[in-house]
């Protein structure tokens, strides 16, 4: 799979979207096409008229998500307590764009951030309740964790070699001895549970808020059926103190699940930190904080 969008990512623009819509869905031709305020990396998103959005993968590695979301979001939505994207149409490659794409219903709200949340502990409970509802959804025929989910929902051992390279690269910059202990604990806590649905990328940018409260969850591109430990990473990336406790108490899960979750959080934070520690102080500080929080959590609960 290709993890890095091609240089042609910039070629995905409003003009392309207008051409695709006119060619494949002429009933919507003429509607205004406007880039969204906060865009993603895996996909580019444009608002279409007042009530729709258009979502286009930026690289081949993100293409499997199109069919997956088109098939499974309608099945999952009735069992979930919050709004999720509604798929209205699936587009085909064309107009020089090489991938399938989709048209969805527009979801009101803004991406979540602390200043937009009225009560962070209540928000954490709402996130946990959503994840528990997702885990209760029927898994029959669901896509087992693997390449399409970037191995979220599988064992963190898939990223063992990469994590050990990060440990070596960050020697002397973080407490790599304690970090290695956290990683070994994650690998040792082998999952033997019944596969359940996981989202795969529960983060502030995929959680929408209105009037200070969580109202919708978007971007199920890394979702699948397997181990939901990856969905607990938000405990350290967004929550702290009372909100982290509220999330932990509501979501429950056993010690092994939390050990694997710490491993997922550590892997990603170290990977990004190793790439930016000498070039982006603000970004590096954020990921250093996550690593420190994960290490402290391991010391407290392991």
Structural features:
three-stranded antiparallel beta sheet, 9 helices, Aminoglycoside 3'-phosphotransferase, Chain: A, domain 2, Phosphorylase Kinase, domain 1, disordered N terminus
Structural overview:
The protein folds into two domains: 7-107, Phosphorylase Kinase, domain 1 (2-Layer Sandwich); 111-301, Alpha-Beta Complex (Aminoglycoside 3'-phosphotransferase, Chain: A, domain 2), CATH 3.90.1200.10. Residues 1-8 have low confidence and may be disordered. With 302 residues, it is an alpha+beta fold. Helices cover 40% and strands 14% of the residues. Strand 8 (207-210) and strand 9 form a beta hairpin. Helix 5 (176-188) crosses helix 8 (255-276). The strands form three sheets. Strands 1-2-3-5-4 form a five-stranded antiparallel beta sheet, sandwiched between helices. A three-stranded antiparallel beta sheet has the order 6-8-9, with helices on one face. It has a two-stranded antiparallel sheet with strand order 7-10. The chain is globular and about 60 Å long. It contains nine helices and ten strands.
